[in-house]
Amino acid sequence: MMPVAEPHLCVPETSWVPAERLKFVNRFVVDRAETCISCGLCASLCPYGVHKRVEGHATILPPYDQRCIGPSCASNSFYCVKNCPTGSLSVRASETFPALGDFRWTADMVLATWQMAETGKPMSLDHPANVGACGGGFDQLHFRIPKGGSMPKDYQFSTSVLLNRRKNGPKLKIDIPVYGGGMSYGSVSLFTMVARAKAAQAWGTFTCTGEGGYPVELLPYKDHVITQIATGLFGVKEETIQRAPIIEFKYAQGAKPGLGGHLLWEKNTPLVAKMREAVPHTSLFSPFPFHSVYSVEDHKKHLDWISSVNPQALLSVKVSTPNDVEMVAVGSYYAGAHIVHLDGGYGGTGAAPEIAKKNIATPIEYAIPKVHRFLTNEGIREEVTLIASGGIRTALDVAKAIALGADGVVIGTAELVALGCVRCGNCESGRGCPRGIATTDPELIHQMDTEWGSKRIINLYSAWRGQWGDLLSRYDMHDLSELRGRTDLLRFEGGKEVRA
Amino acid sequence: MYERYHIHAATVTPRYTPVPKFLIARADNCINCGKCERNCVYGVHERRDDDPRIMADPISQQCKNCFRCVAECPQRALTLSLNQDYLALGNGVWTPQRVLTVWNESEMGKIPVLGAGYRGMFSGPGYDAMWTDMSEIVRPTRDGIHGREHISTNVVICRNPPYLQFGPRGELLTTMASCADLPVPFVLDVSRLKEATPAMLKGYAQAAGELNTLFIFPVQGMAGLSQDIPESNMVPIIMTAQELASVPAGVRMIEIERDEGWDEVARTVRSQRPGIIIGVRLQTGPGIEERLLQASKEADVIHILLDQNGRDAEGRYARDAMRDLHRSLVKAGVRDEVTMIMGGGIAAAEHIPKSIICGADAVTLEEALMVSIGCRACKDCRMEECPANVKDSPSDYVKGRTINMCNAWRDQMLEVLGAMGIKEVRRLRGEVGRAIFQEDAERDSFAGMFGGDASG
């Protein structure tokens, strides 16, 4: 008898999860000179709450820069700089702000993600931080939203995704169209892993161990933890396969397709090595490809092997986006995969050659419609779950991926940004992430605790779900799956109209 | 004995202070608490040697932009900003990021590896609007991934006979032309460098010798180089057949550069030095296709000269221009008989395999040689005011930096080939099917989608 997951919707409570150490960067900086007499006039004037005068305190609090709207406020009668009786206040653009972020993840996008992780409140669909500045792909695809709408209060909608459309195996369902990407113990800290798992449990979705073993600390969340089998087979054991509801085969990773995995020696600490059953302080490579898989038939044997170890597990096949990605997807389906997971070239990584990230294999935006259409024409689209990942940054990116033809997406980087990642890109070597997220350094990891981290991720998805609801309401849809393949709702800003 | 090709890279620290991407500033309200010193894992913040009560100026070159010190400074005394000097680096194909990448590659000789995903533009002009393919595993047939060390990057520079002729007893009748079998598909061309001192030329020549690739230079420079590079690696550029007199006997290849009458020079050279490989340097522009086809009859090697941004005379990028030239040789049925070298615009490791995909057999390194030794690829280059003072570079330094860059680029080419499951770089030539071009991908994937209307 197949166990059928109860249809339920768990919407976890959002909570206010501030982060003092993420308040260092804002668009504007408000300076209060020493000539300030703490009269409190600015506090009574500013409607945004930049200035605060606490009763009983001798001096006014330092300005809350994050809330300031900048020098354009000068046109308002309440502009603090103009009203200050001692002329002590000044407002300027922050010089730190332009140093944050990049074309893919703009500073605005990083700040907005932090904001959503802090409050759980969705940003509006026309907020500039919904798109990046890379000038292509998702950043050039926009929803054609009918003008003038807004989401009615208590709008009912579903964002759940069925992960198994085949006849065999449990009918696992996730409540949001997102689950967590594989980030191994070694590439990220244990606290990060546990925080992600807790959030996945709260949202009724999954997270993934990556290829680095299955730490026992994840056992309380085992029904929400996918385990990965990649070519190095690091930390793959019979019991880890048996306890996982979904097994993910990583054939390739978008950021370094065809190159295999890397864990540089400095991050291979004794604990990491123990988990991976490897020698500490050696560079660990997961070679490309699986040397026992050279055909669809081999691939099927591979999946059958896992099915015999854990017959209840769903099988996910993670591949990157070569020219013939649609053939790969079809092959995976016929080999028995429940989930075909495409990982695009601009996706995240703990360490990858820079040349591979930009140049090898295509961005995910091109792969999704190609595969969706091909599977549809083959008549098997409804029997396979198509999951996309690699450079999906915001709730609207998720919705665009679905409109292009995916059923759901996998998120990695955005979860780390919610935890305070600034995308500095130094997670690959040395002591790893100096901010304590993607590191196993025994000292650095203590900058974060799991409770705080899981709440931030829960909040992020609450905010995203709000945005999806907002988007659905504009089209009078009530289920996110109605959006799948609706490229007619998208506008491609690529210059000319593209026709077949 | 079998010897595997190997480039010996060793760290060569820069002679100048590289332009940091980020600047850290400490304001006057710092209370010297030392929290930044404890927090920074890169050693940016330290106390002063002469007075440990005071924090020294931050060392911006070591900053890796993690913002930890800025975030945790109790006084908010630290600011991290994007360095305007960094943003001003380079011009044209040389983006600040590419200049910085070449500096790092030339220092360490290694593949740049970083954490986190791609952070640049989605696509861009020329080669930035194409992606190379990879070979996924679940295909019915594939040619298999090979250990990186088994991938060949050899190219043969020569004229190939269209077919072989054998005599009645099976003996080979065709005279085989001499060829230059190079271990890497790139050669060094100093003839178009704006200014190069004798020490720099010496360094580049020595590097070419050690890499065992070709070194293209004006024949006038012959005298100064005889000690630095084996004659077989020299490729002097001549304008007239008379200049052949100063070319030593061991030289395997020459190039001819002149607008008119190069074919006569080629014939004279052929009669005087029957074994020598003759290359002809062709500027793009009107009639390039006819000139190309004519050259394919007279010369063994055709060297296409694009501008320093990799564009032809009409301003088209190599990505499109080279594909057309390659195709016209294919159409004429002579593509396999001649070798095509492409020069200009090679500014990053990925440009080499991409040029080969678009039809070149090999490429030349030109301005990259300068950037490698610290040049900033300024738009208005004035040697005497050079901020990196490249003209004082000693030859050992030039040699080491060049070898490092070449090693990093070759290793990255191996990554690209490995991902494709291609065992030999020669098999990549003209293989446009192993690449994804942006316009094709957008036609395939976004066909029929509403686009171009800003009002939505």
3D structure, described in words:
Chain A has 500 residues and is an alpha/beta fold. In chain A, 27% of the residues lie in helices and 13% in strands. Chain A is built from 13 helices and 17 strands. In chain A, the strands form five sheets. Chain A has an eight-stranded parallel beta sheet with strand order 6-16-15-13-12-9-8-7. In chain A, helix 4 (190-202) packs across helix 13 (450-474), helix 7 (296-309) crosses helix 8 (325-335) and helix 8 crosses helix 10 (364-378). The longest helix of chain A is centred in the last third of the chain and has 25 residues, at 450-474. Chain A is globular and about 80 Å long. Mean pLDDT of chain A is 91; it is low at 1-7 and 496-500. Chain B has helices at 35-39, 68-72, 84-87, 96-108, 198-211, 222-225, 262-272, 288-298, 318-331, 351-357, 367-372, 395-420, 438-446, and strands at residues 22-26, 78-82, 113-114, 130-132, 155-157, 180-182, 186-189, 215-218, 234-238, 253-256, 277-283, 301-305, 339-343, 362-365, 435-437, 450-451. Chain B has an eight-stranded parallel beta barrel with strand order 7-8-9-10-11-12-13-14, surrounded by four helices. A two-stranded antiparallel sheet of chain B has the order 1-2. Chain B has a two-stranded antiparallel sheet with strand order 4-15. Chain B is globular, with a radius of gyration of 25 Å. Chain B is an alpha/beta fold. The termini of chain B are far apart. Residues 138-146 and 452-456 of chain B have low confidence and may be disordered. The longest helix of chain B has 26 residues, at 395-420. Chains A and B meet through helix 8, strand 14, helix 9, helix 10 and strand 17 of A and helix 2, strand 2, strand 3, helix 12 and helix 13 of B.
